[in-house]
Amino acid sequence: MAMRNTLVLSAVAALVGACGYVSAYEEAVYDPEPVYCYQSIGRSVSGVECYRTPKHRDERRLVNYYGPDPSSYDRPEPPPPPTLSAPPAVNFFVRDPEPIPEPAPPRARTKAEPAEGLKAEPAAGDTSEGQAAPVAKAVQAAPATPVGDDTLP
Predict the structure, then answer these.
(1) What is the mean pLDDT of residues 48-65?
(2) What is the rounded CA–CA span in Å between residue 127 and residue 119?
(3) Is residue 54 classed exposed, middle or buried when 0-12, 13-18 and 19+ CB atoms within 10 A define those classes?
(4) pLDDT band at residue 108, thresholds of 50, 70 and 90?
(5) What is the 3-state secondary structure (H, E, C) of the chain?
(6) pLDDT band of 84, cuts 50, 70, 90
(7) Mean pLDDT computed over 79-98
(8) Has this prediction a pTM greater than 0.85?
């Protein structure tokens, strides 16, 4: 009987002790102001942001803490899910107009192609009639003057 009482008392003591578990680290740092640091991207130069209370939604990014374990704090209640509702029904519809085929856009001109409405000037020696035709004919009609060998450098 005495053995049974001792066994029951030790079991109760173990249960009570397990519920109030505090590590040696937590006992040493419990009173100072706690700090909870989380990994971050882009907000700080060091890539770590620290807070006075734990952020339960960011518990996977926890880098280090000084103070009580974050699990010793009560988790906040999750926000209620948003209420979604369909828009009111209407008794008409709007139909987009059918696409109308359009001609291809004008292509970019190259240096060889003249602009629309402008006539290209004929090249030298061109016998076709046009603005430069008399000049080209005059150049063709002029005899070539021979150059002597003594004038060459």
Answers:
(1) 89
(2) 16
(3) buried
(4) confident
(5) CHHHHHHHHHHHHHHHHHHCCCCHHHHHHCCCCCEEEEECCCCCCCCEEEECCCCHHHHHHEEEEECCCHHHCCCCCCCCCCCCCCCCCCCCCCCCCCCCCCCCCCCCCCCCCCCCCCCCCCCCCCCCCCCCHHHHHHHHHCCCCCCCHHHCC
(6) very high
(7) 87
(8) no
